[in-house]
Design goal:
Layout (H helix, E strand, L loop, with lengths): L2 H28 L4 H29 L2 H20 L3 H28 L6 H30 L1 H22 L18 H5 L2 H30 L4 H20 L1 H8 L1 H18 L6 H16 L2 H11 L5 H30 L1 H21 L1
Length: about 375
């Protein structure tokens, strides 16, 4: 199966994930849930991925990507469709768990597949293309969810989102035989321990940088829809705001390989951190929709430049046959952030309002920028 076809299938699954996060948060608001409750529900997108990413990565190293991708698409489709039948807070918890877990498994498998495609020199380009696909679905999912909620209602929106991973599932049933079925010999040798990976200083650094940037990304997807809804913007407008972020991540990834050659990875990472620090510092003072869209776009330019280089460096550093496990460890850290940040910032937002939430994240990213600049 060509790489571009794999990326298209990934776009379909990620559309349900990105749109589902917006739809879940807006439906929870519509049902009268407090910010802390919404944070708890959204954290379920990441709880099982946080706990199972390492084991899932090892399984993918052992059995290959075909089966995990097919199962993951089915789980995501079933999870998104559940809210069509019962749009309640309890079912939203099920939706978050299923869609988040399905996307995690699919993402791990495809990351392994993209990293193994071509020569090592091709990885920055391949991961840039892969990340551009995420930018497309990151734009399409929230936009689709926002406009569908206004035009079709919440139940039909979830059914529409479920159609995307369902299409991926059907394609994999028909053409999945063209994907690798089993892992390499390295994946079946000896006992595997995460501490073996963590002894590598470069891998530890990649994990730390990835986790901190993930906090900035997660705050945007969680807090900005709530903030925009509370100051009176419609679901369609919120979809445009979140979509502007994804458009920016797509545009910066088009030119990312050239930028990386010119400035180097650490300068670009420092720029990503400091851009996030500035944007979150001024966000709570912005209320007009055009300004919110502009700030989301600038934030997307900064944060969107980091992920492809992180994945490329990680894949080049890990021992043979352990790429899935290493990406699983990274995903566990990212999902720990996605689990804890909505809970922490939801409670903080309920108690003190949104300004401390934005400013706390600005401080985290500012500290990360200082660390990256020193490197």
């Amino acid at each position: 199966m060509p790489l571009i076809a794999v990326i298209v299938l990934t776009v379909c699954v990620h559309t349900a994930y990105a749109g589902g996060r917006v739809a879940v948060s807006l439906l929870a608001i519509d049902l009268g849930a407090a910010a802390a409750t919404i944070g708890a529900i959204l954290s379920l997108f990441a709880v099982l991925p946080m706990l199972s990413s390492v084991a899932a990565g090892r399984m993918i190293d052992r059995v290959g990507v075909r089966g995990p991708m097919t199962v993951a698409a089915a789980i995501a489709a079933a999870g998104a469709a559940a809210a069509y039948f019962s749009p309640t807070l309890g079912v939203l918890a099920v939706v978050s768990t299923a869609v988040g877990s399905g996307f995690m498994l699919f993402h791990l498998a495809v990351s392994n597949l993209v990293g193994a495609a071509g020569a090592p020199a091709d990885r920055p380009r391949n991961f840039s293309m892969f990340s551009m696909g995420f930018s497309v679905s990151g734009f399409l999912g929230p936009m689709l969810a926002g406009f569908a909620i206004d035009q079709l209602g919440f139940r039909n929106t979830f059914l529409l989102l479920a159609a995307f991973p369902l299409a991926t599932f059907l394609v994999l049933l028909a053409r999945g035989s063209t994907l690798p079925a089993a892992g390499g010999a390295h994946a079946r040798e000896g006992r595997r321990r995460v501490t073996d990976l963590l002894r590598n200083r470069e891998i530890r650094t990649v994990f730390a940088v990835s986790g901190t940037l993930s906090m900035g990304w997660d705050l945007f997807s969680f807090v900005v829809p709530i903030y925009a809804a509370r100051i009176g913007h419609s679901a369609s407008t919120i979809g445009v705001i979140v979509g502007a972020f994804s458009v920016a991540t797509f545009l910066v990834r088009v030119v990312l390989p050239g930028l990386a050659r010119r400035f180097g990875e650490w300068r670009m990472l420092a720029g990503a951190f400091l851009t996030g620090c500035v944007v979150y510092g001024v966000y709570p003072f912005a209320t007009p929709a055009p300004l919110l869209v502009a700030l989301a776009f600038v934030l997307g330019l900064g944060l969107g430049s980091s992920q492809p280089m992180v994945l490329s460096v990680l894949y080049n550093t890990v021992p043979p046959g352990r790429a899935g496990e290493a990406v699983g460890v990274r995903n566990a850290l990212v999902n720990a952030s996605q689990t804890l940040m909505p809970l922490v910032f939801g409670a903080l937002g309920t108690a003190l309002g949104m300004v401390p939430v934005f400013w706390t994240m600005a401080l985290f990213l500012g500290a990360g920028g200082w660390f990256a600049a020193r490197r």
